[in-house]
Design a protein that fits this description.
There is one protein chain. This protein is an alpha/beta fold and 373 residues long. Helix content is 51%, strand content 10%. The chain contains eight helices and 13 strands. The strands form three sheets. It has a five-stranded parallel β-sheet with strand order 1-4-7-10-13, with helices on one face. A four-stranded parallel β-sheet has the order 2-5-8-11, with no helix packed on it. It has a four-stranded parallel β-sheet with strand order 3-6-9-12, with no helix packed on it. It starts with a helix and ends in a 49-residue tail after the last helix. The N terminus is likely disordered.
């Protein structure tokens, strides 16, 4: 059964249960159901395999097309059987009932029984004959709009949940792999711009790198077997580098805040865990503010957009630093400075001359001639 026919059934069941007219020959049209019927029938008409019926063809209860009667258009019996003894140019549909085609009857379109059966006792059908199971539930009502308070609570819960996850992950990183975190943080301090550019390129290269890895593995039989593990390993590695980079960026941000505070009032060096949590709080504070301004509409959306942009930039810089340091395993090599001038020679032993700043060369002692002795 096509989806629009199901939608029509669900809508009609809801309408009839809500209070359709009781007369067997009265069309099922009420002011309350007019809009719903229009929606269902439009959906049905858009389906190339559906039954093309209109509101005027809907009737409640048992319906009969008598012998010799020629009905132009469609006929739909709701909660009753449809006996066709004459001719129906369009579709013959029964909802929660049977379509019975008596000898000599003709249906130009489809014969459809929803919640019943199509029984052909000698009639002819120009289209299809379909029997569809009945539905026991009414169409699902449209979800009510989410209130501002509920939307605010959802955003706050999401922000606080991520903060807790990253805080726990960051503390575990400090306990287990502190050196890796320090190495990535040092790379951020030493070359912020390069880290951002490398991180940006790395984000664009993630998908091509995965595809290339799978192509290489698919060359051999062993590689094909390893493809699922390679996919899992790739995503774990990418997620690990992204998380490590963001934690390192949060640590550097926390240090920056601490240094600004120390400029006005010198304080002792704070624990690494405190510095990391301070940096994480800086980023997630933007998300909390955006959640609290949900009621403001466009303003709240702009705040959340700014929070997303700042967070993305931090993740990108950290990801680039993690790639440059190979996950914090390769320390940053300092850039060699200018060569120091060679040390000056000491000429203090030489005989000075009247010219200031010029040292005289040592005088040679003349050797006596043996003939003069």
């Amino acid at each position: 059964m096509s989806t629009p026919i199901r939608s029509l059934v669900l809508g009609l069941l809801a309408i009839t249960c809500a209070g359709a007219l009781a007369s067997a020959q009265t069309p099922v049209r009420t002011a309350a159901s007019s809009d719903s019927l229009h929606v269902w029938l439009d959906s049905l008409r858009n389906d190339p395999n559906g039954a093309h019926v209109d509101e005027q063809s809907l009737h409640l209860g048992h319906q009969t097309v008598a012998a010799g009667q020629h009905l132009t258009g469609d006929i739909v019996a709701v909660r009753g059987n449809l006996d066709v003894e004459g001719t129906v140019d369009g579709d013959a549909v029964a909802i929660l009932g049977d379509v019975i085609l008596h000898p000599g009857s003709k249906v130009g379109g489809d014969a459809v029984a929803i919640g019943g059966h199509v029984r052909n006792d000698g009639g002819t059908v120009g289209g299809e004959m379909r029997s569809v199971s009945a539905f026991s539930t009414a169409p699902a009502a449209a979800a009510p709009p989410v209130s501002t308070a509920r939307a605010t609570w959802r955003l706050l819960s999401l922000a606080l949940g991520w903060f807790v996850v990253l805080a726990v992950l960051g503390l575990l990183t400090l306990l287990l792999t502190r050196s890796n975190l320090d190495t990535v943080a040092e790379r951020i301090r030493a070359d912020f711009t390069r880290a951002f550019l490398v991180g940006l390129l790395g984000e664009f290269a993630l998908l091509p790198a995965l595809v290339l890895s799978l192509v290489v593995l698919a060359i051999t039989v062993v590689g094909i077997v390893l493809i699922p593990f390679a996919i899992i390993g790739f995503f774990l590695a990418a997620a690990g580098l992204l998380a490590l980079g963001f934690l390192a960026m949060s640590y550097v941000s926390g240090e920056s805040i601490m240094e600004r505070g120390a400029a006005s009032a010198p304080v002792r060096r704070a624990p690494a865990g405190y510095v990391l949590l301070l940096g994480l709080s800086l980023y997630f504070a933007l998300w909390v503010v955006g959640a609290l301004f949900t009621w403001a509409g466009v303003l709240g959306a702009l705040i959340r957009l700014a929070a997303a942009a700042v967070t993305w930039a931090a993740v990108t810089v950290g990801f680039g630093a993690a790639l440059l340091s190979r996950g914090g395993t390769r320390a940053h090599a300092p850039t060699p400075g200018p060569l120091a001038p060679p040390p000056e020679q000491d000429y203090s032993w030489e005989t000075p001359t009247p010219v200031t700043g010029v040292a005289a060369a040592p005088r040679r002692t003349p050797v006596a001639n043996p003939k003069d002795l």
